[in-house]
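Checklist before submission:
- one chain only
- standard amino acids only
- sequence pasted in full

Submission:
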Amino acid sequence: MSNFRLAGGLLVGVLLTAIMTPASAQQGPLVDAEWLSKNLENPKVRVFEVSVDPGIYERGHVPGAVNINWHTDLVDTVRRDVVGREKFEELLEKAGVTKDTTIVLYGDNNNWFAAWGAWVFNQYGLGDQVKLLDGGRKLWEKQALPVDTKAPSYARSDLTLPPAKPELRARLPDVLAVAEGKKDAVIVDIRSGDEFSGKLFAPEGSKELSIRAGHVPGAKNVTWSKAVDPETGKFRSKEELKKLYADAGVDGSKPIIVYCRIGERSSHTWYALSRILGYDVRNYDGSWTEYGNSVGVPIANLAGTVWQGK
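Returned file contents:
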């Protein structure tokens, strides 16, 4: 009888603990749609949508997700810079984020700007709390998981962030030092092959342009989209990612700088190389719009394309 009572007490204790303790996040920098769908009511989880199209959130989003408009929330709208600490703190406090919150980011276009958001969150010391929803909106919608059109409201938190980490960000002098052979690092250009070769200045419809085409001399070209499964939008396996980049001469043995046109696509590759593979990586968010417009810097233009003012 006593053994039965003891076993029953242990069972009750286990059940109460399971009920009272929020589910822990999956290990690693990614969570899958199944885990998130089971944790939508978890008070220790806060979801943010960061999409390329600012209007897509209003048409339906993951229930409870807070919208981040990358045009205004993640950048300084006057300076060419990431969002300042005070403004970012305000955003997170309004969303009820604390130092114990598991932060899940997702978005459209295979998490382009969700990865940009993750890079900003990491700069402000929240890297261990941040996860990307693997597959983003694409997979969530494909699996017909619930969406909501209501913007949530949360009790305000009190959060103090450290200064942004400069070691996660590359500047023009850092890139020049590598291009000129003064610093030993690997530069990865994640744009399309036509952008890399100089055939295209930028993707069709892009407003941020450089008056020169081509790439940083010595850069390796691994298009960002090769890191994801085209059907699901999920990152390829860790082993597949290692091989993809190693085949291009990027194995993590040297510091890495990634860039694209304005820094958003390269943040996706930054996430793959830094957060998933654990390499030493910095994102050059000035990217080709800064480098290609800078006077006197060396470039490689395989296609020989010349700016015609159109």
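Reviewer check: Residues 1-23 have pLDDT under 50 and may be disordered.
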